[in-house]
């Protein structure tokens, strides 16, 4: 029995090893391999049983052979009924053991057949599932390939469409730039033509200009006239019908301009002479006024001497007048020195603010003040000025007003 158990264990080990080999095989070779393994196991089990039976039979034959010489040498005792019973029991127990081992191995074979059948069924199920998965995977690959082809086709179409649109955009942009350049050129030509039209209109006689203005006003009276003007393709009416007329007029205007330029040159020269004489007269008058003031304040004591108090009072009145006009026009109780201090402060503030004024405005203000100062100075001396100064001042004022 121990030997049978060892053999059964070896068979199980072999079965496990064969099962590992079986699982490692491809799907198409598993069924044939399983059939071969089962047949091999059956043959091995049947062969082992037959070997045991043969060994037992050989053992019995050897015993009988060993007993034969004994029989020949000795006389066998007579067998009793008890010996035959023991021998029958021994043969029965041996047969039972053989039968039991055969049944055990048969049950093991059946169990292994069932396990193999289950494994084959599971393998078939796995094969079917693998086949389904393979079919699905192939369908997925075909669908994916189809979608990739469609996507590639769509991408190529979109790329071509985008390229065509970009080319169209570039073409339209170039056309727009060309049209804009043409439009700018036409606008320049239109401006030139309008300038020529205005020039021709201004060169025409005033009577003709008034007649044209009245015609334009009458044409704008109704909407129908406006539509008629828009649809009218006739050339505009011009005063000059011959280019020679325009050339003659330009020649005449050129001569008039030359004569006017000559007259203006002569007038400018006369003006410069008058301005020079005016400056000389002005200097003489200023020198004369200075002398008169000196004679007034520093003359002989018996004729023009004034007390010092009178001069101080006059000076204080003058300071007060300047203070009222420049600093504060209210009545104050400040003395003359305080008023002078306030005037100096006011003057310093004005000078600081004068520095912050832009140069252009400052120059303009200086010119205005100079003109006012000259006017104040020249008007009181109008009667005492010589005839040349009268003429210069009159000409200067006329030029300024014009």
Can you characterise this structure?
The protein is mainly alpha-helical. The chain has eleven helices and no strands. Helix 2 runs antiparallel to helix 3. The radius of gyration is 72 Å and the shape is elongated. The relative contact order is 0.03. This is DUF4200 domain-containing protein. One of its GO terms (cellular component) is cytoskeleton. It comes from Neolamprologus brichardi. Keywords: Coiled coil, Signal.
Structure summarized in a few sentences:
Residues 1-24 form the signal peptide. It contains eleven helices and no strands.
- Are there runs of 5+ residues with pLDDT below 50, and where? 62-79, 230-234, 300-306, 377-402
Count of individual helical segments:
11
Helix and strand string, N-terminal first? HHHHHHHHHHH
Shape designation: elongated
Specify the biggest β-sheet: none
Structural class: mainly alpha
Q: Cα-atom Rg, whole angstroms?
A: 72 Å
Say how many strands there are.
Answer: 0
Pfam families: DUF4200
InterPro entries: CFAP_domain-containing, DUF4200
Protein name: DUF4200 domain-containing protein
Signal peptide: 1-24
For the structure shown, list the relevant keywords:
CFAP_domain-containing, coiled coil, signal, single chain, disordered C terminus, 402 residues, elongated, 0% strand, DUF4200 domain-containing protein, mainly alpha, DUF4200
Write the layout of secondary structure elements.
Elements: H1 2-24, H2 27-73, H3 81-203, H4 206-219, H5 223-231, H6 243-298, H7 301-304, H8 308-326, H9 336-356, H10 359-378, H11 387-401
